[in-house]
Amino acid sequence: MTDETKTELEAESQEADAGTEKATTSPVEESAVATETNDSDETPTRLNQTVEMEDAGPCRKHVIVTIDREDIDRRMAEKFGELVAESNVPGFRPGKAPRKIVEKRFHKEVSDQVKAEILMQSLEQLAEEEKIVPLSPPDLDPATVEIPKEGPLVYEFEVEVRPEFELPDYKGLRLKRPVKEFSEEDISRAERRLLAADSQIVPKTDGAAELGDILVADVTIEHDGKVLAEHKELQLPVEYRTLFKDAVLPKFFERVKGAKAGDEREVDIVLTDEVADETLRGKKAKAKLKIHEIKTLRLPEGEEAYRELGAQNQEEFRSFVRAFLERRLKYVQRRSAREQVLEKIGEAAQWELPRDLLARQARHAMNRHVAEMRSAGMSDEEIENRLRLLRQDILASTAKTLKEFFVMQKIAEVENIEVTDDDIESEIERLAEEFGESPRRIRARLEQNDQLDSLSIEIAQRKVLDLICEHAEWEDLPYDENEELSIGSINQQAIPGKMRDALAEIEQETSSKEASTDTE
After folding, report:
1. Quick one: average pLDDT of 342-363?
2. What percentage of residues in the chain have a pLDDT greater than 70?
3. SS3 sequence of 180-195
4. What H or E segment, with its residue span, contains residue 120?
5. Which of 120, 363, 488, 519 could form a disulfide bond with 242, CB atoms 3.0-4.6 angstroms apart?
6. For residue 37, which phi and psi values (nearest 5 degrees)?
7. DSSP symbols for 291-315
8. Cα dihedral sign for 13, 14, 15, 19?
């Protein structure tokens, strides 16, 4: 599916090949020599190895591999046999040096080469026979592996692996589907939002707050009777949800609609995990508003405003808006289906995930969400608002995303669903047509932003969802697009201080552990 989640053990074995020059080995005893040889173009004889695995934590295995001495001796014999015939040892004609002298002179080089080849083959064979699906390269340093003077070669490592779980029945699910026929009023409201970026903010003559207006207010934030912060003449977008950098006003429009200058309102505010004061993270507080003024947006007029947005006139622009809303609805339906599917089969996702894995995948999860939202036609501002919501509980959202991925990936494997190069090219062409750009430029941007993997995940999950939805039983429910579209943002913190970067904390924690392990 993706490089992050489909890392092969073969990649680590290639690292083993590069790292073996630092290893220390012992000479091979003459009595251990065997004579079997293999042509370099033929498949190497399979190793006789035993594997022991045990759990070492969430999604982590401790692996001990034991390789028979006979395999080591055979490989050493083959290498020395080649060297005897090809070596150029001072004092002897080429290819005529005694075997014991060749072994003594070249034993380290041969041992290192044999070790590298055996480790590579062993890891490949391990991946094939044990069906290990690693999430990252194994914690194996080839330089610490030594071929003993006698007895088998034993090496061990730990590796993050995909969680093991049983899939419940995912066909025939009962799902709810948001549906809507967009009215002219809906289109006018969406048109206003799309034109807002080029609008002027002006005082509102009638003074009553409506959706899309802006409040100018003094804001006092309190928790348990204690004042946490005071903001003077803050501009607050009147939307269903309004976001600070570190807090959410979840039902803002509901609480302030109809307000006028001079009014006072009290609204709920939820402090996120990024808030500066760690004792307040996740807490609910109250925001008291003393409203000084109501402002509104004066939309640009004339056909020039529509031409700047790619339309010749308002009629053409409204057609574009309708298509935009319908495309957005499809995105909402797909997202709703995914959430319901994961909830329905949630009993398969009751496993823990290691924190370092969450840290590595958090940014990847963000890229996937960006790819989905761009595909749905969201603007950069909308995407940033939604990413701000996701960042507020980065660990929980990443864990949810990863579990979703593992469940979807397993269904894809069961149903033999794959993402081909043609699938990716078709998606790039669709995006190019949607955004009016060349496929080459779209691909270059995806590569530059490291989003091709995100695109591949999106395609794979779309295929899985299509399959599940094809076999589902549906109940249609009315859809309120304002819940999706009506998000306002305040480019300011609710609580002063240095905001927490949860992802950076985990990455630092992981780096410190790795540094400590290396020191030991």
Report:
1. 73
2. 80
3. CCCCHHHHHHHHHHHH
4. helix 99-130
5. 488
6. -125, 155
7. EEEEEEEE---SHHHHHTTT-SSHH
8. positive
Place of tokens 């808030």: 275
CATH classification for the domain delimited by 9-160, as one of 3.40.50.80, 3.30.70.260, 3.30.70.1050, 3.20.20.150: 3.30.70.1050
Residues 6 or more apart in contact with residue 87 via CB below 8 angstroms: 94, 95, 97, 102, 105, 106
Closest CA to 247 of 224, 271, 221, 265: 271
Quick one: CA torsion of 215, 484, 386, 317, rounded to 10 degrees?
Answer: -80
Quote the tokens at residue 167: 């899939």
Chain-centroid distance of CA 214 in Å reads 35
Question: Encoding tokens for residue 460?
Answer: 């794979």
Determine phi and psi for 95, rounding to 5 degrees: 80, 5
Total length of the chain: 520
DSSP structural state of residue 477: E
Pairing of strands 284-298, 200-203: antiparallel
Q: Are 17 and 467 in contact (CB under 8 A)?
A: no
DSSP state of 20: G
The CATH class that applies to domain 200-298 reads: alpha beta
Q: How far is CA 189 from the centre of its chain?
A: 34
Q: In what order do the strands lie in the sheet with 49-55?
A: 49-55, 60-67, 153-160
Mean pLDDT value across residues 159-177: 87
CA 28 – CA 103 distance, rounded (Å): 8
Q: 174-181+316-487: what CATH class?
A: mainly alpha
Adjacent-strand bridge partners of 55? 61
Could you give the CA distance from residue 91 to residue 102 in angstroms, rounded to a whole number?
A: 12
Render pLDDT for 253-302 as a digit per residue (tens, 0 to 9). 999 999 999 999 999 999 988 888 989 988 999 999 999 999 998 888 77
Averaged confidence pLDDT in the chain: 80
Domain residues of the chain, as ranges?
A: 9-160, 174-181+316-487, 200-298
Say if residue 141's pLDDT is above 70: yes
Q: Contact 368/458 with Cβ under 8 angstroms?
A: yes
Q: pLDDT, tens digit, for every residue of 504-519?
A: 766 666 566 555 555 5
The H or E element that residue 63 is part of is: strand 60-67
**Integer Cα distance of 142 and 25 in angstroms:** 12
Burial of residue 72, with CB atoms counted within 10 A of its CB: 0-12 exposed, 13-18 middle, 19 or more buried: buried
What does the DSSP assignment read for 222-251? EETTEEEEEEEEEEEE-SSEEE-SSEEETT
Beta bridge partners of 287: 221, 267
Cα distance between residue 203 and residue 283, in whole Å: 34
CA 61 remoteness from chain centre: 22
pLDDT of residue 193: 79
